[in-house]
Amino acid sequence: MHIVHVALQGCLRGGDIEYGITADTGGHIRYLLELVEASAQDPLIERITLVTRAFDCDFSSVDYSRPSEVVGPKITLIRLPTERPGYLTKEQLWQELPAFVAAFERWLATLPALPDVLHAHYADAGEVAAEIGSRHAIPFVFTAHSLGRSKLKCLAGDSLGFDVETQRALQRRIAFEERAIREAALIIASSRDEAEVQYADYLHYDAGRIRVIAPGSHLADFTEATSTPAVEAMLRQFLADPDKPALLAIARPVTRKNLAALVRAFGESEALRRQANLVIVAGVRERLDALEPELAVNLCELLKLIDDYDLYGQVAYPKHHAPEDIPALYAWARERGGVFVNPALNEPFGLTLLEASAAGLPLIATDSGGPNDIVEQCGNGILINPRHSDEIAQQALALLQDRSRWRRMADNGHRAVMAFDWRRHAQRYHDLLARLCRSAPSAPLPQALLICDIDNTLTGSPAGIRAFNAWYQAQPQLGFGVATGRSFHSALSILEQAGIHYPQLIISSVGSEIHYLDANGVTYRQDRGWSEWIDRRWQQEAIQQALRDFPGLTPQGTLEQRRHKLSYFSDGDPGLVTRVHAHLRKQGLAGTVIHSHGRYVDILPVDASKGLAVEHVRKRLRIDREALYVAGDSGNDLDMLRSVPCSIVVANHSDGLLEAPGMTHVYAASAAHALGIIEGVKHFQRRQPTGDLAS
What we know:
Oligomer: single chain
CATH class of the largest domain: Alpha Beta
Number of domains: 4
Strand content: 15-25%
Helix content: 25-40%
Largest sheet: 8 strands, mixed
Shape: globular
Radius of gyration: 27 Å
Strand order of the largest sheet: 3-4-2-1-5-6-7-8
């Protein structure tokens, strides 16, 4: 396979990257280079080409106009010239895209064969890949890294960063993103928030063509890091008491990173100032007036706030640091019992969070973006609303004062080293590309169908998963799908982590969304007919308003709210469902109310549930009722289990499932988790043999 990566922005080279030298030379370049390095280790990958724009510059001694550069045995960097020779920021690049496309065409003509796939990084590269891909029928993959509509939201209330030219630049960028989203064969997102919230703002949003693959990170340099004399000297000149715990932030001073909110949080909390120092490492600079405007404006704001709050002796903001200082900075903060803080208005992923975790620092991080996934998976920090500076201060102070909690989160952070690995990322990435690049015939409709819940039904036992995979391979006429309370991308993620890939259908968000696997074995298509059907009597905003202050209900996070699902935490009251129904009826509203595991409540349209979704799928796939098997373990599986003759409850069930009315026909497995599913299907197959399906 020959993969061509297209990345126009920043100062791209094979090594010794000049990070921070421009606003566009940041994390996406590191992501790209580490991805191709990991990709090159796979023997199935024959060749990788990085294609970028050539330019002359007067701010570096590096020759960025050099036509080509060998990065590794399989990796070549190609720089294509355009009409304007100088460096251009991402806001200016649009003017050169036609010339870049023409140069790209000339370069393609020199190749013995067209590449197998294009992979575009950022909006401008997405426009190029969409154009080249359409001309030559080359599939392209799109990685946004950050999205224009998210930045538009961040800047909407910021008069400094939202002038007319900024608005025009963002609208051009959003137009490029819309085309890339519409035409890409596959979109790779770094987090659920990106896949389910940020992309959902776009006209051509299609959840089934987005796959979440968390970036890896080279964390070995951070796990054993210690402070150094250079770092000690760098910070000592700022701090009156350098041995106090420190709140550490490392980020470029762009508006989205929201560093001013961190200074406000620190400055407005006398208790936090007594307890800790603040250290902000915001890129490198010589003179403020030599910086790009956005960087200069934000740094000036930071300096003004430090002066306004009179924080001298309590805040460090060094002008320079070397790459090798970064691990030592994390270690310096860890040795003093500090905390790493990321207050960004939106963080697409957050590699610095992984670095800090590997170094042993707990996190306080924005609840908007990738930190949701990192903190959920690793249990290594606290999520905050980045627009509430008082919340940042309260959570930081509470964590610094609770040393056992601090230690627990610091210890949990080492999970990041294992969870976010480039080798694992490359394996999943290559599997997706290989499927995209080969033509696959449409699979025949199954003669029978198994649909099971995921958490604690299918998953929960690694040995059970292995047995299930082997058993299912021997069932050639049995279709397989899942029905879960999780969102679509959360379901895919947990299945992939468990070692179960590509179910033929996914009923997600407690039956309010249905997706079917495409013939390519990678992407999914949503059942739009189902969505339209359940939308008929759904009054989401009115129900949300009616339950705003309802006793016993607390809304779950934004990420758990869906177009046809409202999700809450409950106080465990067994009469809660009845009270909610009565309250909604009094308001002239209706919905399906599902209480599960004693603490979760989901409100759905009256026409939606797992059971109703399963019946819709059965009819669509023309499966006989006696050839449909369902399995579950909790209250949100109840209507699915009641409505299907061949229903299975695994031994580890909860919520008094077998005692519920209408469950006398259900098979109660003696085995737990996936082994219980196998046991139940075999039971029904013996009762009603179905040819090749019997085992």
